[in-house]
Structure formats: C-alpha cells, structure tokens
Amino acid sequence: MPLQPHSRRTSGGATAAAAMAASRRPGRRGGAAGAAGSGSPCAGREVRGDASFRWSPPRTDSRGATSWTEASAGASIGFPCCGLGTRGRRLLAMAPLSTRLLIQRGRPKSNRLGKIRSLDLSGLNLLSEDLDHTLLGRLKQLQELDLSDNQLETLPADLGLPHLHVLHCANNQLSDVTHLCQFPQLEELSLEGNPFLTVSDSLKVTFLLPELRKFNGKDASTTRSKAESLNRELTTRVATHWKKFMAALSPEEQAQAQADFVKSAVRNVRYGPMSLSEFTQWRVRMISEELVASGGTHARETDMPEGSHKATATQQPRARPVALRRPGDTLLSLSPQKRMCTSLLAPVEGSLVGSDSSQLEPLHFLQCHSKNNSPSDLKTQLWACAFEPAWDEGQAGAASQTVATCGGEAVCVIDCQTGIVLHKYKVPGEEFFSVAWTALTVVTQTGHKKRWNVLAAAGLRGLVRLLHVQAGFCCGLIRGHRKAIATLCFSPTHETHLFTASYDKRIILWDIGTPNQDYEFQASHLLTLDTTSTPLRLCPVPPCPDAYLLAGCEGGCCCWDVRLDQPQKKRVCEVEFVFSEGSKVSGQRVDGLAFVNEDVVASKGSSLGTICLWSWSQTWQGRGSQPTVAVVVLAWLQWSPTILAYFSLSTCPDKGLVLCGDEQGSVWIYDVRPLLAQRSPPQTAPQAPTQILKWPQPQAMGQTVTKTMVNTVVANPAFTYLTALTDSNIVAIWRRGEP
C-alpha cells in the first residue's frame, strides 16, 4: 500500500482558547513561551544563558489538527506566556550598525572607517542581515573582527574585508562555513559554541583558508593534514570512477553524459568514516566538477601542505552528538498554512520469530518528522520516544497509548491505536535527541488539584523545552548546558526533578517547579554531576531513586550520590562499574541502560553482540569503598554482533521484558523472567531472544524500504503497543493482540 495522507487532531477548542487567553502575560526568556524564570513579574528569563527566540501561535489546518512552531524570524506576537524577550527588545532598542557605532568600537581611535584595524561587535545580538556589506566594506584596513556572542546564522558572502587576518565568531548559530573563502588572508579563526557546525566543517575551514594557523585556539596543522589526506585519496578515487564511467559509454554518449558524472561520483565515491561524510561528499562534488570542466584531463588536488595523518576507511561507530546535515538541507521556513507532513506507510511483509508469534502485528508506519514536510524524506534520524503517563492514576500507566517521539527538528505526540499525530512541535534548526514525561499536580484558581502531563524535550542546542502538549505551546525553557543534551529523565519519586545529561560531560539535576495558573515555571539548579565522558543514558536506582543515579557513558557505567541533604552541590562519580574482573574492559561505552525490576539492570555496549543482566544489590554490597567494582552478572543475552553504537535498549518491568533494535530493522525481545527465577549460576553462553520482529519492509514513494536502523524501541507498561524509531524517518508501531 503506498503512502497516504494522515490526519491529526487537537484536544479541543476549549484548551486552545484557554491557551490564547494566557497570551496577555508578559514575555518569558528570550520570547520563549513560558520559559523557566527568575521570579520577576514577567518570569521571562531562563535559568542560564540569554539566547532568544520568537514564537508563532498554533496553526489549525482544514482537518482541525494543530501544530506549533518555534520560529527563528518574524515579528514578536502575543502568545501564551510569550512576548518580546531579549531579541525583541534588541529590535526595539538598538539601531542597525552605523558609522558612529563602528567608530566607537573600532581601534585605533579615528573618525574615519578606513583607518580602523580592529573592530569589536561582540554581544550585540546581531542577526545575519544586520551585517551591512556596504558599510563594512568601507573598513579597507580592517585586520581583526570580533562577532562573538551574537545570533548569526550565516556570514554574508560579500563583506569586502580583503585584509582580514583574525576573525572571532564564537557562540553564534552558524551552520555553514563556505563563505569564509572570502577571507583568503585569514590566519586565526574562532568558531566555538556554534552548535550546528560539525567535524566536517572543521575540515572545510582548513581547506578553504590556506593561510590559517590557529583554529579555535589550537594549531590548525593537524586538522589541515587530515583534510589534505582525505582530499588526496578522494581525488584518486574520483579519477578512477571517471575512467570506469566513461569506458562504458560510446564517444557520442560521453559528450552528453559528463553532467551525469558529477551525480554518479557523489553517489558512489565513498571514503573515510561516516562522521566525515559531509566533507567527503562536498569535496567529491568539487573534484568531479573540475574533472568535467577539464574534459577528464585534470583533477586538481588541494595546495595544502603534506600532513602526517592518514585517513582510514575503517568503519566507525555512528556519530550521534550532532545534527547530521546533508547537501541541500535548509532551515524550515514557516508558511501561512501548514501542510500535513504525516504519512502512513503500509507494511508489505513481516515475520515474528518466537513462541508468541501471533501476538504482535505491525499496525502503523508513519513519516511524521519529515524535513520541509517532504514525503520523500527517508533520512531524518529519530532518536527517542516515551509513553505518556496514564490520566487514570489507578491504572498506573497500564492504559497509556499516547507516545511522544523526537528526531530532526520535531517532537510528535502520536495515538498508537489510530496512528493519528495529535500534536507536533517544531524548532527550525534543532535536532531533538530526547523526550521525557512527568505528571504534575497543579492547583486551579478555585483551589482544586488536578494532574497535568508535561513533556520535556531537548537536543542539539542544549535547551530543555517544557511543552504543554494539550494547549499547544512551550511553557518553559531551561538552558544549563553549552553543548547538546544527549538524554534527560524525570525522577520517579519527585515529579518536578529533572536530570539532563550533556555532551559537555555534565549531568544537572533541576527542580522545574510547579506552574502557576498562567502555566509559568520557575526552575532551580539543584546539583551538578561531573563525568569523565559523555553520559548517554540515565537511570535513577529504583530501590533508592533519591540517593543514587546510574548512567551509561561513552567511558563506561557510573553512579553518583544525588542525595540533596549532602552539602556538596557539585559531585564526581561515586563508583564505576565494569563488566569483568580484568582491567582491559574498563572504560568501554555503555549506550544501553535500564532496570528490568527493582534490582536487575540490563546494559549494552560493554561486550560486542550481547546484553548484560546484572544485580544492583549484589554489586553494591560487594563494593566496599572501592571506586571501581565488577558487576555481579546474572545472565548474558544474545544480540546483534554489529559494531555500530547508540542503539538504545528499554525494558517493560511489568512484563519482565528487555527490548532492543538493531542495524537490520529488527526488534529483539527477551522475556527474562525465567532467567531471573533460576537459582543456578549464570550460563556462560548468551541466551537467545524470545522473539525477533523482522523489519516489515513498508513502501514509501512507490519503493520498498528494505533495511533501516532501529535506534530505539519502547513499549507501554501493559505491553499492548510497541514503538520503534529508525534512522530513516519512520515511526513503527506494533500492537499486541489478545492471547
């Protein structure tokens, strides 16, 4: 069955009306609706940082579905708990760049722009369009320019500064470096704190700037040598591909097919790790175009000096901490009318291996995170999902069938039964990595208590957004990290306590507070936990969730004391867990971590092709005062032998299940209750999965999606619905039938 449009709906007009009524409140931090505040009447400042955003209200399409988008441009408008904010005030209070301002901030002091050699324009909240090339072009002798701590998304291509030697652009929103080629004399460059730039951009910088000596405060020669080595190998491979490509054509066809060669080379020439694919494709295109222009007689290598580093073609773990941009990707521009971007993919074939093969069936396959609402987007990576707490507290979440998913620039809330996307939240330029729910108790104006589910979402920009899903707006914004947030989770005992883990190697415990009648939050910073490597998964320890936090990190599995009655507000790792008595396996990545029950932990990553079940209580009892302790292994579970990383496992404690996806699109399901019930020592051989859900191969745009990576698998507590997220922009939902 081909792709079909898919409907969304809101929770009703009454809630939307209440949300709009709250729009009369003054703005929150940076124009962000309902950001975590400082206690002022506006409650408009985040806990840390001063980046700013503007917002547009929910848009309702012809089907009554609501989506809301955080906009990066446009006038500030009334909206629940939002207003002008930092950037809005700048637009009103500060005039554009002027000759007077440049003279005031220029050195040496002169009343003529042509005499200025150094100019400081940092901290002015400048946008890209504020950089007037006509005005800046008058700085004929300018050698040093500081544009740090602004809101620049790109550098104009024609600033006219031919003698610029030093450029500082730290802490902006830059997503492209190609316009730096206009500064051929640049010797020193700073681009730190631009969350959209990747390692590929660093290689581009050294390729584009032949005179660069210092990059982000370090010697640029090492990065340059890597780029040179890659470029040399790519040049050779493109030339080889040219010969093969043209050999298959007649002389008449060769003249007409040269334009097709560039596309063929970009598609087929591969070299180096996946994390550098953006740079290699960029260079392959340039080399191919040069080869075509010369008629196949010349493919120019870069003039960069020889470097000592050799690029390798060995397979690397997938790059996770940055948004994977591809050629042609652009920030989403808002349109007056939102189109449906959710599509339903029909499963064509599928199989279930195991004793319970009749009980799980493919139900929905959705494309609801597509970039630019494109139904052909099968590249956006989806990373995390979480089921909403059940509204009926007596059911303890058993009836939950609403799941939040995140990936790319969107967070979606989906009804698993119908496949309808109930709500969608977009942030152009963001890359969401994690979502988590909490059920808060709020007091109404009449004094009645009610439960209110809040969804937290975070990712590349290091911001936590607290989303009022039903009303359709962001009611809180917290910035506590300078780098991307890998994962977050709420405390199981304190509904307002939120842990955030970042690539800045810190875990922070926040109290987001309880919102007032206008949906305003006031978050406070409770603890900072330092890590020696990037934390990837967080698990409060069930027997003592207020005392200890367990984390799977790039460098292993660690535990912290998080008791708030202790005086230290900044703490280091209490103990590191290793999965063998031998020291050789210490410090290995743990990218999957979850508790199966009150005592048993399931972890993945420490040993290739297996999942480890180990006892928290037995391990902790045998710890003593040691900083490193070997876990007490209960069993090993057989899993995919892939060397790729960042496949997150999950558990369904009520059913004794462990779930994990793999690189083939399969879902591995383990019923571990028999293993945990046995009294004998653990078997050395890994236990096979109870079931394997094979990838159902849905159809998209008339083509079958035959293979994909399942990054995350999560089931609701009753195990009636199972949701899997893929590397190919597909949300897959299975339903368990009656036994």
From TrEMBL:
Localization in the cell: Chromosome, Centromere, Kinetochore; Chromosome, Telomere; Cytoplasm, Cytoskeleton, Microtubule organizing center, Centrosome; Nucleus
GO molecular function, one term: methyl-CpG binding
Region (Disordered): 1-68, 297-321
SMART domains in UniProt: LRR_TYP (SM00369), WD40 (SM00320)
GO biological process, one term: DNA replication
Keyword line: Centromere, Chromatin regulator, Chromosome, Cytoplasm, Cytoskeleton, DNA replication, Kinetochore, Leucine-rich repeat, Nucleus, Repeat, Telomere, WD repeat
Top-rank lineage group of the source organism: Eukaryota
Residue stretches making up the Leucine-rich repeat and WD repeat-containing protein 1 LRR domain: 100-287
Keyword Translocase in record: no
Compositionally biased residues, Low complexity: 10-24
Functional note: Required for G1/S transition. Recruits and stabilizes the origin recognition complex (ORC) onto chromatin during G1 to establish pre-replication complex (preRC) and to heterochromatic sites in post-replicated cells. Binds a combination of DNA and histone methylation repressive marks on heterochromatin. Binds histone H3 and H4 trimethylation marks H3K9me3, H3K27me3 and H4K20me3 in a cooperative manner with DNA methylation. Required for silencing of major satellite repeats. May be important ORC2, ORC3 and ORC4 stability.
Assembly description: Integral component of the ORC complex. Directly interacts with CDT1, GMNN and ORC2. Interacts with ORC2 only when non-ubiquitinated; this interaction prevents LRWD1 ubiquitination and degradation. Some of these interactions are regulated in a cell-cycle dependent manner. Interaction with ORC1 occurs predominantly during G1. Association with phosphorylated ORC1 during mitosis is not efficient. Interaction with CDT1 occurs during G1 phase, as well as during mitosis with phosphorylated CDT1. Interaction with GMNN occurs from G1/S to mitosis.
The family this protein is said to belong to: Belongs to the LRWD1 family.
Listed PANTHER family: LEUCINE-RICH REPEAT AND WD REPEAT-CONTAINING PROTEIN 1, OPTICIN
Name of the molecule in the record: Leucine-rich repeat and WD repeat-containing protein 1
